Amino acid sequence: MRSQAGAWFEKAFFYHIYPLGFCGAPARNSAEAAGSRLGPLHKVIPHLRELGCTAVYLGPVFASHEHGYDTSDYYHIDARLGSNEEFRELVGALHAVDIRVVLDGVFNHVGRQFWAFRDLQEHGENSAYRDWFKGVDFSTQSPYGDAFSYTAWEGHFELVSLNHQNPELRQHLFGAVDWMIDELGIDGLRLDVAYLLPKDFLRELRSYTRAKRQDFYLLGEVIHGDYSEYLGPELLDSVTNYECYKGLWSSLNDGNYHEIGHSIGRQFGDAGPEAASAGSRAAAVHASAGGGNGHWSGISHGHHLYNFVDNHDVDRAASVLADKNYLHPLYGLLMTMPGAPSLYYGSEFGLPGSTTAGGDAALRPAWSEVERQAGQASAAS
Questions:
Q1: What sign has the CA pseudo-torsion 362, 105, 67, 225?
Q2: What is the pLDDT of residues 146-171, one digit of tens each?
Q3: What are phi and psi of 233, to 5 degrees?
């Protein structure tokens, strides 16, 4: 069942930016690292308009110690980027040219610098916030030597898992969302690690945001499984389409469109015999567009998934394609398949980037570096 027929995000073309890298922020936060660095985000706005982008998805922007997914305060923009007021001005500048703004909502876990976790470290069992975190156990120490252990996201103990069953924590998180909407003016949230967030939390967040703004967009990071479990009027508007992500580029590398055809057909195809036996991209897209006998069975039918060929977590398309000449057909597939296309900053210039060669930082360069490499590529062509 479609979540919001005719909503702005059904026709959106996203531009994805990782702000800490894009703006050239220091790798770690400190008093010396603070500064007004939002200038490149203002500078790129004409480029977004030239591309035809109608929405920008900004990775983590709230206070953190390192990469942004280790939040220390949901109510303050990271000091390495600028102030709350400066960020509010950026959102206004984007809205002035009809570009929507979606932020990363990192609500599954926080960093060890999160103010409530610091209180737990200081006051131990007497902390008013001990139940805000999962698995707190005072009978054993954490790998960091705390007087207690706790549940960490995927074993990364610098990221402390939140206990969403605690009503005070929920109130804090929803209050932060309220502030993001009212004070910053954002249009949506991409929920990091949405596949680990409890469904009742997602439902309550959906109800809360819809009461604030009917067209507020909720996108969930979901990697595996049946995406339809997270989609609907009471849940999320969209999820990250990792199922098709790999098929898009590997189909070109292999010269075989069966994988991407199967994935698109599974998500948006119909129940007719033509779709059931379709092994080509053309048949799958035909089915998704309403071909065949019209009896829909695609598990994501009626929803607009968030489609991409690379992002801040995976190697850039130019580094995984066997031939850079495949870039144009790759983006042709991305722009014509069902769903909302997203372009990761710099990839429009064929920018390479691989975690094997340089870790996550290789995927998250400053905009000045993107411009430099794009200029070199243009001069060489």
A1: negative
A2: 999 999 999 999 999 999 999 999 99
A3: -60, -25
Q: Name which CATH class applies to 108-163.
A: alpha beta
- Delimit the domains of the chain by residue range: 108-163
Phi, psi of 361, deg, nearest 5:
-60, -30
Instruction: Kindly indicate the confidence band of residue 1, based on its pLDDT and cuts at 50, 70 and 90.
Output: very low
| DSSP code of residue 127 | -
Tell me the three-class secondary structure of 134-200, residue by residue.
CCCECCCCCCCCCCCECCEECCEEEEEEECCCCHHHHHHHHHHHHHHHHHHCCCEEEECCHHHCCHH
Q: Which residues of 195-222 are buried (b: 16+ CB within 10 A; e: fewer)?
A: bbbeeebbebbbebbbeeeeebbbbbbb
pLDDT of residue 281: 42
User: Which residues carry out catalysis?
Assistant: 192, 221
Q: Would you say residue 338 has pLDDT above 90?
A: yes
Predicted pLDDT at 297: 63
Enclosing H/E stretch for 100 = strand 100-105
Task: In whole angstroms, give the CA distance from residue 115 to residue 142.
Answer: 18
